[in-house]
Amino acid sequence: MSEPKIVEVKNVSFRYEKEWAIEHVNFSIDKGQFLGLVGPNGSGKSTLIYLILGLIKPNKGSIRVFDESITHFNKWKEIGYVPQKANSFNTGFPASVLEVVKSGLVSRLGIFRFLKRKHTQKAIEALKIVDMEDFAKSNIGELSGGQQQRVFIARALVSDPSLLILDEPTVGVDTKHVTDLYDLLGRLNKKNGITLLMITHDIGTITEHATHVVSMNKTINFYGTSEDYNQYNAQGSLQWYREQSDQAFVTTHKEVTSDV
Ligand SMILES: Nc1ncnc2c1ncn2[C@@H]1O[C@H](COP(=O)(O)OP(=O)(O)OP(=O)(O)O)[C@@H](O)[C@H]1O
């Protein structure tokens, strides 16, 4: 029997007011995948993430996370979330790196439980994963954009999630540190076994890091492996889909004729 999906989005449509923000979206994420979600501004990427996080409800279709309907799901510690522009603290922001990471242990129910020593220990462990333990006592506002982003990843990792969702983590991070950030994400995925879903505008480089890609503009234009996405881009969508349907025809034809 195949393993249950980590995320399963089935025929989902959502509108904020009159306009549909996303329509008939279908895709799933298996355990261990690193899925890059790409698309132009306003194409519905963040909306899709809010739906997966249960923050808004689909008007049509259904979503399952960890093999449970999103409407009943309550194991939120399984999901770490790094929101868009998390790294925008100014130098005056009065919180230490350790405090920011510990705040990731506040549950969605708002129970404030993070003052215990073991929680400090958990936060330090999360900072170690992102190579930021030396900055535990620093003020968050004193760090660079890339360093702040690592702290926010540590904040999302502090509850040991199996799925990490990141909304454009490379925005505001300089080129050298973008490479470091991708190395970190690769390590979390391959070494720590964390499934990743990441919104990005790095269309040129995402396939070097992600195993799978969803490209959307309200509806899904492409969903498949990074290898196939490179071919899809190289050939143009029309040619690519033509070849796919030709191949499907040949396969089906072979199956049918060999059955005769
Ligand atoms: N709270 C809201 N109320 C009404 N419309 C909204 C709201 N949030 C987003 N929208 C609209 O929904 C559509 C999808 O927006 P969304 O933020 O999901 O796109 P996105 O792909 O994440 O964009 P970006 O790459 O710019 O972050 C856009 O047309 C946007 O204007």
From TrEMBL:
Residues 7-243 form the ABC transporter domain. InterPro entries: AAA+_ATPase, ABC_transporter-like_ATP-bd, ABC_transporter-like_CS, Metal_Ion_Import_ABC, P-loop_NTPase. GO terms for molecular function: ATP binding; ATP hydrolysis activity. It comes from the Bacteria. The keyword Amino-acid biosynthesis does not apply. Belongs to the ABC transporter superfamily. This is Zinc ABC transporter ATP-binding protein. It comes from Gracilibacillus halophilus YIM-C55.5. The lineage of its organism: Bacteria, Bacillati, Bacillota, Bacilli, Bacillales.
